[in-house]
Automatic annotation (TrEMBL):
Organism: Neobacillus driksii
Transmembrane segments annotated in the record for this chain: none
Protein name according to UniProt: Amidohydrolase family protein
A Pfam cross-reference name: Amidohydro_3
Domain Amidohydrolase residue range list: 55-402
InterPro entries: Amidohydro_3 (IPR013108), Metal-dep_hydrolase_composite (IPR011059), Metal_Hydrolase (IPR032466), Metallo-hydrolase_Enzymes (IPR052349)
């Protein structure tokens, strides 16, 4: 049990104000937060006199934001901590998979080391939750899972995590389903899938086997879907049918889902309504070279959209920073979010939902009873943080500084 303490002089948002032209600005004030057993138990104005006997840590006037969720990553693939190596060019997804398969065995012994370096990077940028997909395939078996699980367990006092058993080389290949079952018994928590049309070449059977695994292990689902256009759209539509039939409400996600942005708007609206009703989520990495799912439309329809950095510094690509906030900045640029309130509300795509203020300017975070998970930045408000992605001066998880310093 940690000693209770006050995090003093922390800048928190208190509301929006509008000028005569209707332009929003964000009001902030300095507060003291009392933290005990990993939770915020008191919130006082900085004029409050803290009893002398109580421990204090100075927040230095930094702005507090909710910590971030990295919701689409591949800890097992990164080259981080190894010597520099650029990817070998590939002309197709099939060729890329072949090239990856060739080096899996070589990389396996360093899985924990490489993952730990990636985790440190994600933490330094404010992510205290990681959802990672881990290859489960005929080439690597469970070796990657063992290394990634060990790395994440070492950081369990600094973050929370989810491991997705990911059939990167196809679910319907010989012996993959037994391997997936073994992975679920060995520490994976979610069932993954990959391109039922493009890779498995059998949409219905691929989705059926994903759902079978999920129901057998009472697990949530997160499938990769790169298949585009009407084929990809049909796949999502068929998936919604299976989710409804299995009563897997609020337990299924589709990562990438480019196809949802490649069909006419009436179809986008129709599928968004289905996703919303079923509580299905969309995970996006905001790529700059591919079409995007219609994030704004999905958001308006009540579909949860989460962001992630995907795999980076690996055989798939040499680029990436591990900064989920940077993904929100890119979203803002693409969707032309440039006014105060839109920028501020976009923060939810990094945090997994929480923002300091509601759309109407009501204070909704932090409140007494909330977990003491905070990112401290040198910014005046959420809108500035989204637009300018400032350095994370300190990252606090359950009341403990887990990256940076104060």
């Amino acid at each position: 049990m940690t000693v209770p303490f006050w995090l003093t002089n922390v800048r928190l948002e208190t509301g929006y104000v509008q000028d005569e032209k209707g332009v929003y600005e964000t009001k902030t004030e300095l507060f003291h937060l009392k933290i005990e057993n990993g939770k915020i138990v008191e919130k006082k104005s900085n004029s409050f006199a803290i009893p002398q006997a109580e421990k204090t840590i100075d927040g230095k006037g930094l702005l507090a934001l909710p910590t971030f969720k990295e919701m689409h990553n591949h800890l097992d693939k990164t080259y981080l901590s190894l010597d520099w190596k650029a990817p070998i060019p590939a002309k197709s997804l099939e060729e890329r998979l072949r090239l990856e398969a060739m080096e899996l065995e070589e990389l396996a012994p360093t899985a924990k080391q490489r993952a730990s370096t990636m985790i440190e990077l994600l933490l330094s940028h404010g992510s205290t939750h990681i959802r990672t997909h881990v290859n489960i395939d005929p080439y690597i078996g469970l070796k990657n899972l063992e290394g990634i699980k060990a790395a994440l367990e070492d950081y369990s006092d600094k973050l929370t995590y989810e491991i997705v058993a990911f059939p990167q080389h196809g679910l319907l290949r010989e012996n993959v389903i037994p391997l997936m079952k073994e992975a679920m018994r060995s520490g994976a928590q979610l069932v993954g899938g990959l391109d039922p049309a493009g890779i498995d070449r059998n949409i219905e059977k691929s989705l059926y086997e994903v759902m079978n695994l999920a129901t057998e292990f009472d697990a949530d689902i997160d499938i990769h879907l790169h298949d585009g256009g009407h084929v990809g759209f049909y796949t999502v539509d068929k998936f919604t049918e299976m989710v409804e039939e299995a009563k897997w409400h609020n337990r299924a996600s589709v990562s990438h889902a480019f196809s949802l942005g490649e069909v006419p708007v009436p179809q986008q609206e129709e599928i968004a309504d289905k996703l919303s009703t079923l509580g299905m989520s969309i995970m996006s990495t905001i790529p700059i070279t591919k079409s995007l799912p219609p994030i704004d439309l999905l958001d308006k329809k009540g579909v949860n959209v989460y962001l992630g950095c995907d795999g980076f510094y690996d055989s798939w690509g040499p680029y990436g920073t591990g900064d989920v906030l940077e993904k929100v900045t890119r979203y803002g640029e693409l969707y032309r979010r440039s006014d105060e309130r839109s920028l501020a509300q976009s923060l939810k795509f990094a945090t997994g939902g929480p923002t300091p203020l509601s759309k109407d300017g009501e204070v909704v975070w932090p409140l007494p009873g909330d977990e003491a998970n905070l990112v401290l930045v040198n910014a005046t408000c959420s809108a500035e943080a989204v637009a300018r992605t400032p350095k994370r001066e300190a990252v606090i998880f359950k009341g403990k500084v887990v990256s940076g310093q104060l």
